[in-house]
Amino acid sequence: MKYVDEFRSPQFLQAQLDKIAEFPFNARFMEVCGTHTMAISKAGLRPLLAPKVELVSGPGCPVCVTSAADIGLALALAEIPDAILATFGDMMRVPGPAGTLSQAAARGAAVKIVYSPLDALEIAVSNPNKQVAFLGVGFETTAPAVAAVVLMAEERGIDNFHLLSLHKLVPPALKALVEMEEFNIDGFILPGHVSAVLGSNAYTFLPEDYGIPCVIAGFEAVDILQAICELMVMRRDGAGLSVEYSRVVRAEGNPKALDIMHRVFEPADADWRGLGVIPGSGLRLREEFTARDAASLVAKIIQPADDRGCRCGEILCGKIRPAECPLFAGSCTPDNPFGPCMVSTEGTCASYYLYDYTDNNGVVNNGVEPQHQQVDNGVEPQHQQGCD
């Protein structure tokens, strides 16, 4: 592919929409990636596919699935005297038991926004008399980079660098989803970024054990529609696992990234917003790195408060759409988020509010991203494969 434009071609998009419309049945698919949710909304695909295909959003936003209890732990860290909490910016406004990290910073807590875990390590170097805790949030995509920084801290002897690992693993969450009562989807659009690290082999249990079709998709409109075409074929002919995003994703994933991740972390039970505690779905520091566990710095954890009507958990499980939450677009907006799904740029509520929401005047936000001449890696788009 030389340019992104091939993956946004109106001719290719219309051809795929026509093929999807030819199937003599309707289907309900779930995208399990916040970037996919935003891409679908920005391209205006939901109304174009309806009623033939219904797309629902799953727990694909790492900020959104972080539990209230874990936000309370981060807030407790921020309040420790002579400590610095380093975090990515999208965690600053997530509501917790005692407000947000942004509000904690306004009260005088030392909360620093960083762009990478390496920035947090440098803060520790520059402040040797303070304990620096990095808030590690994300799926398999971000965990290897965080693990690499932990190893770097070990090598350089930077003893005041700590990590609060709130990392989550995608496959156990998918297993928990499909085993939920009344869970009703016909296939998964699987995440591209996570799968670039994890590899496609990690998902074989879904078609083999549960009979659920799965396609790993890229992030352009043609990628997503091609994935839907393949899912429709599988729904007709039998479940399988396909990699539409083959220009990036391999069956074995990224062995080097996985090796670094497994050297530092081991699986642990984790609390997911909406899904509860899922066995083996999180990552904790291995025993040899427990001295760097930031949770050990906290004497008292701020306990979660009542959610006050936020239905983000149900949205993350695909049980309801954002507009079915009584707070959506009223007391909960991107400028004044009431729940985490409205905070992150990958949040389901935020994407629906910006692109799929009909306001009181009947105006529908359904924006299409402008086309750009961006260079990629020389692989031609896969639109010619078809879906029959």
Characteristics of this structure?
388 residues; alpha/beta; Rossmann fold; five-stranded parallel beta sheet; four-stranded parallel beta sheet; 35% helix; 15% strand; globular; disordered C terminus; Hyd_form_HypD; HypD_1; metal-binding
How would you describe the overall organization of this protein?
This is Hydrogenase formation protein HypD. Pfam families: HypD. Keywords: Iron, Metal-binding. The protein is an alpha/beta fold and 388 residues long. It has a single domain (1-356), classed as HypD, alpha/beta domain 2 (Rossmann fold), CATH 3.40.50. The chain is built from 15 helices and eleven strands. The strands form three sheets. Strands 2-1-7-8-9 form a five-stranded parallel beta sheet. It has a four-stranded parallel beta sheet with strand order 4-3-5-6, sandwiched between helices. The chain has a two-stranded antiparallel sheet with strand order 10-11. The longest helix is centred in the middle third of the chain and has 17 residues, at 221-237. The chain is globular and about 65 Å long.
**Domain module tally:** 1
Our estimate of the beta-strand percent is: 5-15%
Quickly name the level 1 CATH class: Alpha Beta
DSSP strand count: 11
Distinct helical segment count: 15
Biggest sheet overview: 5 strands, parallel
Mean pLDDT: 89
User: In CATH terms, what is the fold-level topology?
Assistant: Rossmann fold
String of helices and strands: HEHHEHHEHEHEHEHEHHEHEHEEHH
Strand order of the largest sheet: 2-1-7-8-9
**Fourth-tier CATH superfamily name:** HypD, alpha/beta domain 2
CATH architecture assignment: 3-Layer(aba) Sandwich
General shape: globular
Spans of at least 5 consecutive residues with low confidence = 360-386
Kindly report how far apart the N and C termini lie: 23 Å
Helix content: 25-40%
InterPro entries: Hyd_form_HypD, HypD_1, HypD_2_sf
Protein name: Hydrogenase formation protein HypD
Family: Belongs to the HypD family.
GO molecular function: 4 iron, 4 sulfur cluster binding; carbon monoxide binding; iron ion binding
